[in-house]
Structure formats: structure tokens, C-alpha cells
Amino acid sequence: MTLGQAIPGRLFLACSAAILTASFLGACASPGNALHREAATQLQARVLEVTQASSQNDTASALKALEGLEADLSAAQAKGQVSEERTRSITTVATAVRTDLKEAVAAQQAAAAKAAEDARIAAGQAAPSPFPTPEAPASQAAPAPAPAQGNAAGNGADAGKNNSGDKGKGKN
Q1: Cβ atoms 43, 20 nearer than 8 A
Q2: pLDDT band at residue 152 under the 50/70/90 scheme
Q3: Cross-strand bridge partners of residue 35
Q4: What kind and span of H or E run contains 136?
Q5: Hey, is 130 helix, strand or coil?
Q6: CA separation for the pair 21, 62 (Å, rounded)
Q7: Strand partners, 82
Q8: Which of 17, 102, 114, 124 has the fewest CB atoms inside 10 Å of its own CB, making it the most exposed?
Q9: Rounded CA separation 25/22 (Å)
Q10: Are 73 and 87 in contact (CB under 8 A)?
């Protein structure tokens, strides 16, 4: 994944986590006995975990923290520390954040699969051809050039000249 793709994903996750935090804190600030202080403190800590993991683009940790938030919410509701209305409100926002996180995971997996496919294609293009090249292998080097013609009795200084004493055609 490129930096350009990672930043919008982070922003999206951070915004989702911020919405969860704002909704949760709004529920905590409501008057009445809808949420006890002890439960609010515990749930706020879980929301902070989700927010931090999301802002760091760590979707696995964010999902795990979200599961912890929901477990703590269920436990607090069972103890009578959270009203049914507040539980529904928090659960609705948590579900939306979970959907966002799962979409981010799917996008990351798709990007990783595309990068792997691109790398595989690039490696295939860079691989040597299975067909022989037109160049001759080193073991079949071209033959050495033929020696220059001349008198076998010559000393090689007159290579290519006629040393028989013939001065040319018709001159005897």
C-alpha cells in the first residue's frame, strides 16, 4: 500500500473512532442513572484503546479493543450500571465502527494481494526467456581468421606479396 492510500484509510478510521468516542462521551455526560461512573471509566478506557489503534492503522488491535468494549458493556449492563437505552446507543456506534474496521481490513488485504500479483508479474517479465538467444554460446566461438597468403619460404614480412620473382603479367 502506498502512502497516498494509507493516509485516507487512517483518516477514515480515526474519524470513525472519534465518532465512537464522541457518542460514548455524550452518553456518559447524560444526566440520570443511565451510566454509572465506574462503568463509564472502564468503557472510556476501551474506547481510547479503539481510537488509538485506529489512528495507528492497527485494525486488528482496534477490532480486539472493540470486542473488549462490547464485553465490558454487556457486563456493565448485566450489573445494572448501564441502561438499555445507553447500551443500544453505544452498540449502534460500535457496530458502525466495526463495519468501518472490517472494510479497512478488506481494503488492506486487497491492496496486499494486488501488490503480490504486481510483483509476480514483474518477476515473470524479468525472468530469462526459455528460448535460446541468437547469440552463439561461448563454447562455439567463431573460427580464427585464416592466415595471410604468401610464399611459404618467405619470412612473413612480405605477407600477401608474390615472392616468386615474377614481376607481373607478361613480363618475363
Answers
A1: no
A2: low
A3: 82
A4: none
A5: coil
A6: 13
A7: 35
A8: 124
A9: 5
A10: yes
